[in-house]
Amino acid sequence: MNLPRVLIVEDEHALALALAAAVRQASVDSDLAPTAAQARRHLDSATNYEAMILDIGLPDQNGLEFLESLPPENRPPTIVITAHGEIQNTIAARKLGVIDFLPKPLDFDEFQSVLRRVVKPNRRQPDPAAPAPETVAFLGAAPSMRPVFQQIAHSCASDDPVLVRGATGTGKSHAARLIQSNSMRSGPAETLVIGPSSTTEELNAALQQANKGVLILEEVASLNNEGQAELVRQIEAGTEGVFPRLIATTHENLRELVGAEAFRSDLFYRLQVLEVRLPSLSDRMEDLPALVSYFIGQLLPDRNLGITEATLGRLMSHDWPGNLRELRNSIAFALTVNSGAAAIEGNDLPDYLRNETSAVDEQAPALLVQALDSWLDSRLQEEEETVYRDLAETLEATLIRRLLDRYDGKLARMASALHANRTTLRRRLQNS
């Protein structure tokens, strides 16, 4: 079945993947373009795009200038997203016929609602045999994921061994396979899942099968003493370019195991030439809405199902010790329980999530609390002496500016609407 197709013009790779996942949930295909130049080539091709999702802050050209440069007949209905929601951009976008103008961080429910107005999707049947894409662990744009993208990029551009670290369920296998599939090696790709009962014969067989290619050693810390010694021997005896490139994963801290003499130091230093460290889901909660959207689309592609704000808030308040795996299982449970409603509700969640008492401050959304914690950590580390009044004034001035944007920069109108003193607001702005 030929599905409608949209063009996503976004240079931030993680957000582009999240947008593509949200688009897939609506039974729509997409192409990605990180620059205006690549977007232009897509639009000049024979592909018929029913819509374009356009970021303003592109690396080679302002998104609105790019849109204006397109001939009207080559300009699909456009949804603009941007981190800079100035009124001038909004006006310019409307003059260019933009369907909607969405600020970052993106509200994916709003995005999908806008997308449904623009594109009439065809429904496709789910393919139960289709493998989960390796990109699931890397959806979103949380600050904690930025170094991960760089580490993976470096690993893909190198032929050195890689150690992928992270707690259980963070996506270590996904990261390893992503590096493996983009490796400089053209030989065979093999995976060996190591357990306490793994033998040196199994290890040697995997090394032989992956000759000239890439071998993933999953949970390498489980390799027994005999296996560790054999792997060191094989590495030392191996011929460069012929011996497999090794990608090892572990949820353990191998350096601590080396200190406790539970893991060979010579093997550790041979495996940890490059390292990828995956954060826990609790350290990247900004990405949770995009991940939820992705899992819903992956598990139930034939329905356009959302999630209520209250239910999403409950998910945001959970610590997720099982990380992405626990989140996916929770969404799978909710989809099974859901009785045909248009959105996942609190009663659809597993009992332990439904009955869990939120540890998040009920007076503030979870994302706001997390952002505030991150900002405070940064300020307290950067400044030798921090005064509470300075912190409070900075927060208040930021709040006033954000509110002022919503009242078209008119302080008097804002003060009247919020029952605030205009002179006090002006003084707070001037003193910040």
Give the structure's gist in a few sentences.
By secondary structure, this protein is α/β, with parallel strands linked by helices. It has helices spanning 13-25, 36-44, 63-69, 87-95, 108-118, 146-156, 172-181, 200-209, 225-237, 254-259, 265-271, 288-299, 309-316, 323-337, 351-354, 366-382, 388-406, 411-418, 422-431; strands at residues 5-9, 29-33, 51-55, 78-82, 100-103, 162-165, 189-193, 214-218, 245-250, 274-277, 306-307, 343-344. Helix 6 (146-156) runs parallel beside helix 7.
Which tags fit this structure?
5-stranded parallel sheet; Helicase, Ruva Protein, domain 3; 4 domains; 12% strand; Rossmann fold; 46% helix; 432 residues; alpha/beta
- Spatial sequence of strands, sheet with the most strands: 2-1-3-4-5
Structural domain tally = 4
General form? globular
Radius of gyration (Å):
25 Å
Structural commentary:
- The chain is an alpha/beta fold and 432 residues long.
- It has four domains: 5-118, Response regulator (Rossmann fold, 3-Layer(aba) Sandwich); 143-277, 3-Layer(aba) Sandwich (Rossmann fold); 296-354, Helicase, Ruva Protein, domain 3; 366-431, Arc Repressor Mutant, subunit A (Orthogonal Bundle), CATH 1.10.10.
- Helices cover 46% and strands 12% of the residues.
- The chain contains 19 helices and twelve strands.
- The chain has helices at 13-25, 36-44, 63-69, 87-95, 108-118, 146-156, 172-181, 200-209, 225-237, 254-259, 265-271, 288-299, 309-316, 323-337, 351-354, 366-382, 388-406, 411-418, 422-431, and strands spanning 5-9, 29-33, 51-55, 78-82, 100-103, 162-165, 189-193, 214-218, 245-250, 274-277, 306-307, 343-344.
- The chain has a five-stranded parallel sheet, with helices on both faces.
- Helix 1 packs parallel to helix 12 (288-299), helix 12 packs across helix 14 and helix 17 (388-406) crosses helix 19 (422-431).
- The longest helix is centred in the C-terminal third of the chain and has 19 residues, at 388-406.
- The radius of gyration is 25 Å and the shape is globular.
- 30% of the residues are buried.
- The model is unreliable at 123-133 and 358-363 (pLDDT under 50).
